[in-house]
Amino acid sequence: MNNTIIHHWCGETFILSPLKCIFWEKEKALILSDVHFGKTNHFRKHGIAISSNIANIDFVNLELLINQFDPQKIIVIGDLFHSQYNKEVEIFAEWKKAFNSLEWILVKGNHDILHPKIFETLNIKIVENLVLNNIYFIHEASKNLIEEHPNYQFITGHIHPAVKLKLGVHSVTLPCFFFNNQQLILPAFGKFTGVHILKPKKTNQVFCIANDSIIAYQKS
Q1: Which domains does the chain have, with CATH numbers?
Q2: Section 134-159 average pLDDT
Q3: How far is Cα 102 from Cα 100, in angstroms, rounded to an integer?
Q4: What is the dihedral of CA 105, 107, 108, 112, to 10 degrees?
Q5: Distances (CA, A) of 205 to 110, 113, 124, 191
Q6: Higher-confidence residue: 2 or 80?
Q7: How far apart are CA 130 and CA 193, in angstroms?
Q8: What pTM was estimated for this model as a whole?
């Protein structure tokens, strides 16, 4: 997967991947959000037929990214798991054994409701927020929080950002990396997630994900 884009933001260099994550070169950190492992199993448990292959795709993609970037740490900005304990947590635990040498940090999201001892068993550090080199990681940042910390840049998730592109009389909705002066909102990493359409302003930098490519959004 070489269709990446190098993007400089707040004095740092990030590599944007069409697999919906970023790599922070200085920190050797792979950063992603809203994986929602366990969501397919959660739906099947409630009688909704969802293919387990969707979750398998997320495991494959995450392994591809680890092999590509060779990170020292993985930072998940919320919603690593979708809900209560189910079989996918056990699948994740078995899968993760190959990558236990990495430092895993989970910035807690609203869906991360598993007991803290489970994360301890998985060797995942779970925190409410994280600050590295004046970058503030939090699952969802309120306007007030951002305004209270003008010297921080924020990397968040939660809303699963996307934009709608017009193609003649038709349109297409694409997940995206959504930048403004003080915040980067990451796309949802998980395959089985919805999107929230945002309307970029001229001050925003937006990079859309179309299959295995990244496209810079041009406001018409």
Answers
A1: 5-159+181-192 (3.60.21)
A2: 95
A3: 5
A4: -50
A5: 27, 33, 32, 24
A6: 80
A7: 24
A8: 0.89
- Tell me which DSSP letter residue 183 carries: E
Is residue 51 over pLDDT 70? no
In the chain, the DSSP E strands lie at 5-9, 12-17, 21-24, 29-32, 73-76, 103-107, 125-127, 130-132, 135-137, 153-156, 161-167, 170-179, 183-185, 196-197, 205-210, 213-216
CB atoms within 10 A of CB 143: 7
Tokens 């990451």 found at: 186
- The closest of 206, 37, 211, 102 to 219, measured between CA atoms, is 206
Contact present, 89 and 114 (Cβ < 8 Å): yes
CA distances from 36 to 88, 190, 220 (A): 10, 6, 34
**Amino acid type, 49:** A
Distance CA 140, CA 71 (A): 24
Positive/negative CA dihedral, 188, 61, 12, 119: positive
* Other CB atoms within 10 A of residue 57 CB: 13
- CA atoms within a 13 Å half-sphere pointing along the CA-CB vector of 118: 15
Alpha helices per DSSP H over 86-188: 87-96, 116-121, 143-148
Helix runs in the chain, H state only? 39-45, 53-69, 87-96, 116-121, 143-148
40 and 83 Cβ atoms separated by less than 8 Å: no
